[in-house]
Amino acid sequence: MKVTGKAVKFENNIDTDVILPGKYLVLTDPRELAKHAMEGLDPAFPEKAKTGVIVIGGRNFGCGSSREQAPLALKYAGVRCVLAESFARIFFRNAINIGLPISECKGIASNVEDGDELVVDLEAGIVENLTKKRSLQVTKLPPFILEILADGGLIENLRRRLKTK
């Protein structure tokens, strides 16, 4: 599974309240949630993300509450993948469950800038920064996680698996 896009970079400790402010939890349409993704940090983020971006984070990306709406807002905003130094575990699993590719990558925050063109190969565990002509190792995801992502999330993965039995 390969993902391409321009980098949009954020710092350390980006919590779910920043990814999607709590006042928008009353919304149920993921397209409406997407309009408010990263609103507090970058009001222009939804417009930037429409073309398909790769979000880059520092340490502890997705900390805070366990709201599934945070990765959902990112996915529907146009985020193709999230790479960070480290993730809050619940955010990581919520992203997988909704089909948003995500992986840890040591050194990503110091080797990528806003606008860098990236290619992420989740199967090989490599991110290529085409702008800076550098490659970094990302944590390789196990085959069952890659399968969930390829199916578009856990629900679709279960539906597909149940049909084949």
Tell me the layout of helices and strands:
Blueprint: E1 2-9, H1 16-19, H2 30-34, H3 45-49, E2 53-57, H4 69-77, E3 79-84, H5 89-98, E4 102-104, H6 108-111, E5 117-121, E6 126-129, E7 134-137, H7 143-150, H8 154-163
Parallel strand pairs: 1-2, 2-3, 3-4
Antiparallel strand pairs: 1-5, 5-6, 6-7
Written account of the structure:
It is built from eight helices and seven strands, in the order βαααβαβαβαβββαα. The protein has 165 residues and is of the alpha/beta class. Strands 4-3-2-1-5-6-7 form a seven-stranded mixed β-sheet. It is globular, with a radius of gyration of 15 Å.
Primary descriptors:
Aconitase, domain 4, 21% strand, 33% helix, 165 residues, alpha/beta
Summarize it.
The protein is an alpha/beta fold and 165 residues long. The chain has helices at 16-19, 30-34, 45-49, 69-77, 89-98, 108-111, 143-150, 154-163; strands at residues 2-9, 53-57, 79-84, 102-104, 117-121, 126-129, 134-137.
Derived from helix and strand composition plus strand pairing, the structural class reads alpha/beta
CATH superfamily: Aconitase, domain 4
- CATH class (first level) name: Alpha Beta
Major sheet characteristics: 7 strands, mixed
Q: How many H/I helices?
A: 8
Q: Examine the secondary-structure arrangement and name the CATH architecture.
A: Alpha-Beta Barrel
* Mean pLDDT rating: 94
Strand content: 15-25%
Stretches where pLDDT falls below 50 for ≥5 residues?
none
Output the radius of gyration: 15 Å
Q: How do the strands of the widest beta sheet line up side by side?
A: 4-3-2-1-5-6-7
SS elements, strand count: 7
